[in-house]
């Protein structure tokens, strides 16, 4: 059994959905020695999230942002938690909907993503800052 773990710092991104598959792969060169295993990606924040989706057409990422902004509106007077601005509570809700962790199979030393799949960092804040991910891979 081989186990690798790295904390990855993603530079600040504008609000939206960003492909980070290459950054995750570069963070764990040791997965090349795993023929069969699992990779877990965990984001250490409550106002950003992770998901896997379309990696080819950037309009999909734009449409994700449009959908989530329509679904979880800002400036709702019923929200009590607004310490950091009108995007504060909506960011937490969006993060809760998408989640903070991904599990991806490793096959023959590579993430076994589908042809059109990529890992998204979902930045829900206008000024979220750098984000930290813990990337763990294990297998044989």
TrEMBL record:
Entries under Pfam families matching the protein: YjbQ (PF01894)
Tree of life domain:
Bacteria
- Database matches in PROSITE patterns: UPF0047
In the record, the note on similarity to other proteins reads:
Belongs to the UPF0047 family.
Protein name listed in UniProt: YjbQ family protein
Please name the source species: Sphingobacterium alkalisoli
């Amino acid at each position: 059994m081989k186990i690798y773990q790295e904390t990855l710092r993603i530079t600040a991104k504008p609000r939206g959905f960003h492909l980070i598959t290459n950054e995750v792969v570069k963070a764990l060169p040791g997965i090349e020695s795993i023929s069969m295993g699992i990779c877990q990606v965990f984001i250490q924040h409550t106002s950003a999230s992770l998901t896997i989706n379309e990696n080819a057409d950037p309009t999909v990422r734009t449409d994700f942002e449009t959908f989530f902004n329509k679904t979880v509106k800002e400036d709702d007077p019923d929200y009590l938690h607004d310490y950091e601005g009108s995007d504060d509570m909506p960011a937490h809700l969006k993060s809760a909907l998408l989640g903070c962790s991904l599990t991806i199979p490793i096959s023959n030393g590579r993430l076994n993503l589908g042809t059109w799949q990529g890992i998204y960092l979902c930045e829900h804040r206008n000024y979220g800052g750098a984000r930290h991910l813990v990337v763990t891979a294990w297998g044989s």
